[in-house]
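Review form for a predicted model. The reviewer records the input and the model, then writes brief findings.
Reviewer: anonymous (R2)
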Amino acid sequence: MKKFFREHGIWVLFATAVIAAALAVMSVMSTASSPLANLAGIVTSPFRSACAAVSGWVAEKQSYFADITALEEENAELRRENARLRSENRQAEETLEENAQLRELLNLRPMSFDWELETADVTEQAVTNWTSSLTLNKGTAHGVEVGDSVITETGALVGLVSEAGYNWCTVLTVVDTDTSLGAQVYRTKDLGLAVGDFALMDEGRLRLDYLPADCQLLGGDLVLTSGLGGYYPAGLEIGTVEEVQLSDSGAASYAVLRPAADFGSLVEVFIIKAFDAQS
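Model under review:
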């Protein structure tokens, strides 16, 4: 045996190596993948794991940002709803304030009247050498007509509608030179005509003409609309007497009146669209 290994040992080792190599090749060939594919799989396996981790992170962030977007949209909707509720609350407050003003106006009427009123905002004021007027945001679409009286919440006469458009109207104030309406002194019952005057308009005053020469007016006497002829409601406050003077002929007296309405501070007024005076 020893002699056999001495003479043939090298061939035995060579045969053993060949058999081992063949078995190794057969082991590799018995797998589902080729050697190159198997090697590539081994090399790329860590990268596949990293890609899977990155994909999971990206998906998680996408879900997070989707939740953030949904929350932002929900917050925006809540803000819009809050703004709508605030607007409705302001409108409710304005309605309550307007109702309070109307109640005050009704309580201050000197007689029992049936008035149809339209609330209007003052959008413009114009005072020149020739006119004193206001522009309101209500017009024919709201039933406003030329000749309608305009008053404050306390019943003070502001003026008369001189022009009416679809959603606006122009009001000549009581101091305008084109204003002329029947008037009566509340205390003495003297009748006269309240008219605008060029000389007095710059001072924000008007005249009470055609008073009896022997009238006994006093400073502070209240002057109201007479309502004669049915063109305007009776009992509207025109103004108060500041002074009484004789006309140039000396046959009659006239009074200088301070308007009851403060035109410069007017924001909201009431248009009398219809009235029915009752004693």
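Findings: The first helix runs from residue 2 to 29.
Further findings: The first strand starts at residue 112 and ends at 127.
Recommendation: see findings above.
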